[in-house]
UniProtKB/TrEMBL annotation:
Belongs to the sodium:solute symporter (SSF) (TC 2.A.21) family. It is found in: Cell inner membrane; Cell membrane. This is Sodium/proline symporter. InterPro entries: Na/Glc_symporter_sf (IPR038377), Na/Pro_symporter (IPR011851), Na/solute_symporter (IPR001734), Na/solute_symporter_CS (IPR018212), Sodium:Solute_Symporter (IPR050277). The chain crosses the membrane at residues 6-24, 75-92, 126-147, 159-180, 187-208, 228-248, 269-295, 315-344, 365-386, 392-417, 424-442, 454-472. One of its GO terms (biological process) is proline transport. The keyword Membrane applies. It comes from Pseudoalteromonas ruthenica.
Amino acid sequence: MHFYTYLSLALYFLAMLGIGLFAYRNSTSDISGYILGGRQVSPHVTALSAGASDMSGWMLMGLPGAMFLTGFDTVWIALGLVLGALANYLLVAPRLRVYTEMADDALTLPDFFDKRFNMSKGPIRVISAAVIILFFTLYTSAGLVAGGKLFESAFGLSYHLGLIITVSVVVAYTLLGGFLAVSMTDFVQGCIMFVALILVPIVAYMQFNGSADMLNFAQQSIPSFSESWQSITLLGIVSSLAWGLGYFGQPHIIVRFMAIRSVKDIKTARNIGMSWMTVTILGSLGTGLVGVAYANKFGLQVADPETIFVIFSEILFHPLISGFLLAAILAAIMSTISSQLLVSSSSLTEDVYRAFSKTEVEQKTLVKIGRIGVFAVALVATLLALDKSNSILSLVSNAWAGFGAAFGPLVLFSLCWSKITHQGALAGIVVGAATVLFWIFAPVLSDGGTLSSVIYEIVPGFIASSLAIVVVSKLSQAPSAEVKETFHATEQKLEQLS
């Protein structure tokens, strides 16, 4: 590895730690500042922070790898994600921003659920916090796997050393600066990812004599688009598009909507966020497609398709640019890990420790507990990531489905349906999460396979959770007058702001 490459990466690491130190000095004196940045985040930072924390290492490694292996079938996943993100901005963002503030300034998603149903330390808070900690630990391990693979393939370091470097830097700036540090670093990382995902596929494409030449070489390994269209099944399309359903229940994404400084800023954030996402997803797919064509044309050996972006970074660019591009992968990985660590820590602090503490806890103590939570979740996720054979996309898909099914329907019903009850909400979380886990792990098929090989687990999980919410809500006692009043007051405020 060239000196200039190491220099680029060193500057990147220093910048991230510098942002963490700046945020430490400006926003972490109380728990609201540590968890939500005082609800004063700008729309530009909100948009790129949501995008960068969403599009983790799988954007630069998992998705190009899937395109490299399976071809145009991967496009359906990308389409589902774009549609889901847009729906999230339209349906969830404005309502959640208003409702969480009116619901006694709820700081976390479990806190919102608890206050939405006028519960005081109710079971829904603990159960939802447990789901967050469980699936985020799995999700965080996916990011750490990506970090370990990057350092192994790009720098020749051992996988486990790369794992330690990745988690150390992320934990350092997350511990220091909390939500403000995470959001600001996400903004910078989102900009780096945007440039990288334009630059790499375009430069790689320039090695061919036009699109026809590139596609001819690509189709030596993957089916053409028309062949892919003819061979894909309806269940395959549904499974891929269903990735978009996951957005409604991703705590590390929708918490950005809670922290934006004004509902009126959401439209600006949406325009920026969706533009960023469209370009980066096209760049990610393009990297995989051009990658398989390049490998066939030049006889490039690609042992792990998920490292094609890394390979391009090393062979097509000056070492200084290579360092920047490798920093883009680290940016994607770290932005998501830091967001997940902070949300998990927030749940441990607000929804477990503070909610069930018998005495009033000082703000500084809560911030300390939050930092301990960051370290604890990171430690467990690191242990899970020690097995480098784990597929990044597989780990992400499981955690994405878990959150999407457990929280997605509940978030939508809580924001849009006045008749949902506390019992219905509990049923939705439990049934959604249980369905996903059953679909992933139960060997019920004749060959010992699981149902996730038939259809993506988020589909049955989302449906089952929605049915459970509606049925149990109708069978249980109607919400109290106070709960209904808060719901209608939120609707009225939204109308006034719009």
